[in-house]
């Protein structure tokens, strides 16, 4: 059985499997993983808005991610 490593998308708070993430970005020596290209794009535009802050409770409908 393959082990998975889940991390939080820093934009929407969704759990993301590192192996199957829709995208990833390196920022200041840290790798961030995203559930969708939309979340990655938001992060890439304004990373300081998301770095070091909790994404909070995941959005139930993930409308930010489509």
Furnish the topology, listing elements before pairings.
Layout: E1 6-8, E2 15-17, E3 23-27, E4 30-34, H1 37-45
Provide structural commentary:
The structure is a single chain. The protein has 66 residues and is an alpha+beta fold. The protein has one helix and four strands; from the N terminus they run ββββα. The chain has a two-stranded antiparallel ribbon with strand order 1-2. Strand 1 (6-8) and strand 2 (15-17) form a beta hairpin. The longest helix is centred in the middle third of the chain and has 9 residues, at 37-45.
Descriptive terms for the model:
alpha+beta
User: How would you sum up the global shape?
Assistant: globular
Biggest sheet, spatial arrangement of strands:
1-2
What is the averaged pLDDT score?
85
Largest sheet: 2 strands, antiparallel
Structural class: alpha+beta
> Which consecutive residue ranges, at least 5 long each, have pLDDT under 50?
none
Distance between the termini: 30 Å
Helix content: 10-25%
How large is the share of residues in beta strands? 15-25%
Output the helix-strand order.
EEEEH
- Radius of gyration equals 11 Å
Give the oligomeric state.
Answer: single chain
If helices are DSSP runs of H or I spanning 4 or more residues, what is the number of helices? 1
For the secondary structure, the number of strands is 4
């Amino acid at each position: 059985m393959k082990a998975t490593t889940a991390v939080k998308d820093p934009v929407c708070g969704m759990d993301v499997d590192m192996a199957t993430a829709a995208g990833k970005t390196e920022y200041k020596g840290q790798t961030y993983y995203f559930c969708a290209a939309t979340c990655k794009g938001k992060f890439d535009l304004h990373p300081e808005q998301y770095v070091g802050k909790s994404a909070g409770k995941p959005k139930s409908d993930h409308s930010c991610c489509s």
